[in-house]
Amino acid sequence: SLVQRAEGYGIAGTDLDGTDAASVLGAATDAVARARRGDGPALLQLRVPRMTPHSSQDDDGYRSEEELADAQAADPVARLRRTLLDAGVLDADADAALVEHARRSVIGEQDLALAMAAPDASRARRWLFAGDGAHEPPRPEPAIGVFGD
Known about the structure:
The N and C termini lie far apart (42 Å). By secondary structure, the protein is mainly alpha-helical. The relative contact order is 0.09. Strand 1, helix 2 (21-36) and strand 2 (42-47) form a beta-alpha-beta unit. Helix content is 46%, strand content 8%.
């Protein structure tokens, strides 16, 4: 595993269920504290089932319906949402507002991308090799601010 390889280099490693947000937060908090103490880096290996094909060229036909259903059921976002709703930390109105904000953010970013000029094909191979010079592409501002702004 990656954790075993990291340990071979003297790097602390933890293998986690990546669908459990509380465990991930705890391990990440510990890793940051470790680094701030000067105890070196840490590797977190988060295991999350793949819900979709590898690419648009992959028909995913080699996976059973049961495997796909299990992956969908383990969706970390849906799991966290259920946990927060069940605990009363999140209510239906706040949940709906978050979903709407995410939807508007994605649409805004999509609109921004579609409005951009097509890239200059003559630049396709720039900065491909060492010594080609520094490359700092412009980064547009997000179309929608952080939730609550």
